[in-house]
Specification:
This is Radical SAM core domain-containing protein. InterPro entries: Aldolase_TIM, Radical_SAM_PqqE_MftC-like, rSAM, rSAM_sf. Its cofactor is [4Fe-4S] cluster. Keywords: Iron, Iron-sulfur, Metal-binding, S-adenosyl-L-methionine. The chain is an alpha/beta fold and about 425 residues long. It has a domain of about 230 residues: Aldolase class I (TIM Barrel, Alpha-Beta Barrel), CATH 3.20.20. The chain has an eight-stranded mixed sheet with strand order 8-7-6-5-4-3-9-10. A hairpin with a 5-residue loop joins strand 9 and strand 10. It starts with 11 loop residues before the first strand and ends in an 11-residue tail after the last helix. Bound molecules: S-adenosylmethionine (SAM) and iron/sulfur cluster (2 copies). The site of S-adenosylmethionine (SAM) has 18 residues, from strand 4, strand 5 and strand 7.
Length: about 425
């Protein structure tokens, strides 16, 4: 579990570097929210995502806002008076890349690899921006380039995500290549095309998770931006009838906070194998295709907290069997973390970094071949001729993993989706 920066082991201290260039709008006197090993000479420390030690933001910075146009950048700064906006978090992309900084051990084995097959999407979710900005599809060549590394690293499962993976025109060819390596495929989908593509899905995929954020047509439409509740439910029923293991995923947010017990009932009605709940992230500029802070209607407000508490109480009282038997994937304590996370975000409770070892056992590969240690933290490498192992074990990537493990990434404190891989 990463220690929080406050509880770090003394090898790290806050970066000295002024962040006047920081695209998140931090002031020039604020320290970057990264940490350098103590004793390091400030002048030799630099941000690996910047092209130089200049105090100007770098075009190569992996922060989503920095990648946005200069006009968007200036707009963000001007609307916040140069200070962080209410949604603004200290930059999570910045990492220290200096010779001698601690490196995590080389990765020689991975359990799970997530592929963002495409950035494109045909939904219009309030919580996610892929549908606004996503353009790129993963190239078939990228999957071919990945195959030797997936095999050498003993990867067991590949999660197909995005964007909307079923929109990729060649996803079946990609799935065929991956399955020929003995990999098990897990599809995470909005479900709009599930019924239509069911034969291909059933042939290539071992497990399907459908994102279903509303228990009614009205709340689904408010949250996912489409009048498609019945289409998605029909797709889920068809997949269940075809014998596929199907689960539902609910992203808990303003628009569904009072519906959580109804969503459990809906899951039973649809005949799926289970349901899981995840708090909506609004804190990371590295996630969900963002090029700007998450919009207002997603994060819980103080008046939503009693609704969430009532939903969780009702689940504990009326779905105790589902909790005990695993139909609801989270334990009661983990569900209560959603509440604690919301309270912390509103300044009503402490932020605590969750238990997570995702970067040591899994990796995420974006549609353009860039690597991420997890959904929320931008990586330093792009898949190249050396394949997956070389990219994962590049020194900058190992330094990033060491910084994460040392609790040096603010992203972890705010994480809604930590993952703990128990020993195999
Ligand atoms: C980005 S989507 C990609 C796969 C597919 N398009 C789908 O919706 O399932 C992956 C998951 O992230 C969830 N998601 C979207 N916005 C989120 C947010 N702000 N915080 C946490 N999860 C979010 C989606 O509901 C979905 O379960
Ligand atoms: S959550 Fe999935 S379906 Fe919704 S916009 Fe993002 S990628 Fe598309
Ligand atoms: S998944 Fe969350 S807790 Fe885990 S490394 Fe990423 S940001 Fe940190």
């Amino acid at each position: 579990m990463p220690a929080t920066p406050r509880a770090n082991d003394g090898r790290w201290r806050r970066c000295w570097r002024p962040t006047g260039w920081c695209s998140r709008g931090t002031t020039s006197s604020s320290p970057a929210n990264t940490w350098t090993p103590t004793g390091a000479s400030p002048t030799t420390t630099r941000c690996a995502t910047a092209s130089s030690t200049s105090t100007r933001r770098s075009a190569s910075c992996s922060c989503a806002l920095a990648r946005a146009s200069s006009a968007a950048f200036r707009r963000t700064r001007s609307t916040t008076g140069g200070r962080p906006s209410p949604n603004c978090m200290p930059c999570s992309s910045v990492l220290i890349d200096r010779p001698g900084a601690p490196m995590a051990p080389e990765l020689v084995q991975l359990r799970l690899v997530t592929l963002y097959l495409t950035e494109r999407c045909n939904s219009r979710c309030v919580s996610c921006d892929y549908w606004r900005h996503g353009r790129q599809d993963m190239a078939l060549a990228t999957v071919q380039q990945l195959l030797p590394g997936l095999k050498a690293l003993g990867v067991e499962q590949v999660l197909l995500s995005g964007g909307e993976p079923l929109l990729h025109p060649h996803w079946v060819e990609m799935a065929t290549l991956l399955r020929a390596q003995g990999l098990k495929l897990w599809l995470l989908t909005a479900g709009l095309a599930l019924a239509k593509q069911l034969d291909d899905v059933a042939r290539h995929v071992e497990q399907v998770t459908v994102s279903l954020d509303g228990a009614t047509a009205a709340s689904y439409a408010r949250i996912r931006g489409l009048d498609a509740f019945e289409v998605v439910c029909a797709g889920v029923r068809a997949a269940v009838r075809a014998g596929l293991p199907v689960t539902l995923r609910v992203t808990v947010q303003r628009g569904n906070v009072a519906e959580l017990p109804a969503l459990v009932r809906l899951a039973h009605g649809l005949g799926v194998n289970g349901i899981s709940f995840l708090a909506a992230d609004v804190a990371h500029d590295e996630a969900f295709g963002r090029q700007a802070p998450a919009p207002d209607g997603v994060a819980l407000r103080p008046e939503d907290l009693p609704l969430l508490a009532a939903s969780l109480d009702a689940i504990e009282q009326t779905h105790a069997d589902d909790l005990a038997g695993g139909f609801i994937a989270e334990s009661p304590a983990k569900l209560r973390r959603i509440e604690a996370h919301a309270r912390a975000r509103l300044g009503l409770g402490p932020l605590t970094a969750p238990r997570c070892n995702a970067p040591a056992h899994s990796a995420v590969i974006e549609a353009d071949g860039r690597l991420r240690p997890c959904f929320f933290i931008g990586g330093t490498q792009r898949l190249g001729a050396g394949g997956l192992e070389a990219a994962l074990n590049a020194p900058a990537e190992r330094r990033l993993r060491a910084a994460i493990a040392a609790g040096a990434q603010a992203a972890c404190e705010r994480c809604v989706c930590a993952k703990w891989f128990a020993p195999a």
